[in-house]
Amino acid sequence: MGSFLKLLHRQFVVPWQEVVKTIRHNGASDGGYFPVLRGFFVQWARFNEPKHGKLVGTDELGNKYYENNRYFVARNRWVDYNKETWNQMWDYNASQVTPEWHRWLHYMTDDPPTKVPPTSRPFLIKHKRNLTGTKDCYVPYSTTRPKIESWKP
């Protein structure tokens, strides 16, 4: 009978404990009404997969990096993008990840930059987000003469 109870515990109790951990982990930190549930549903809407894990570190942009080895490899490391304003909560992309943390997220190294910082190079520029698709994007101008000129009366 003991093995049957262990089986029931693994099938029902442990998954509910994981759900409770996930709901607590993804709680909103800005207060308001029902911050725990609101944060959980926002996380679900943003990533379609609410997760919980150990905070590994943060970068200079405010992104938080997590790891939970109970998930599959290539799904056990993730980034929670900085969300200071409402627009930032829904407008995020992969170019917001700094190169140091990109190495750790994509398994190029096992040690995060908080443990083993990468060597600094004097020729490297500061990381910034890709602005394509925003109002601040770069738009080149043409230096060639057009083939067809418009008629001016």
TrEMBL record:
Alphabetical list of Pfam families matching this protein: NDUFA12 (PF05071)
Tagged with keyword Cell wall biogenesis/degradation: no
GO cellular component, one term: mitochondrial inner membrane
Record's keyword terms, sorted: Electron transport, Membrane, Mitochondrion, Mitochondrion inner membrane, Respiratory chain, Transport, Ubiquinone
Bilayer topology annotation: Peripheral membrane protein
Chief localisation class: mitochondrion
Subcellular location: Mitochondrion inner membrane
GO terms (BP aspect): response to oxidative stress
Task performed by this protein: Accessory subunit of the mitochondrial membrane respiratory chain NADH dehydrogenase (Complex I), that is believed not to be involved in catalysis. Complex I functions in the transfer of electrons from NADH to the respiratory chain. The immediate electron acceptor for the enzyme is believed to be ubiquinone.
Family: Belongs to the complex I NDUFA12 subunit family.
Summary of subunit composition and partner proteins: Complex I is composed of 45 different subunits.
Protein name: NADH dehydrogenase [ubiquinone] 1 alpha subcomplex subunit 12
Organism from which the protein derives: Phallusia mammillata
Lineage: Eukaryota, Metazoa, Chordata, Tunicata, Ascidiacea
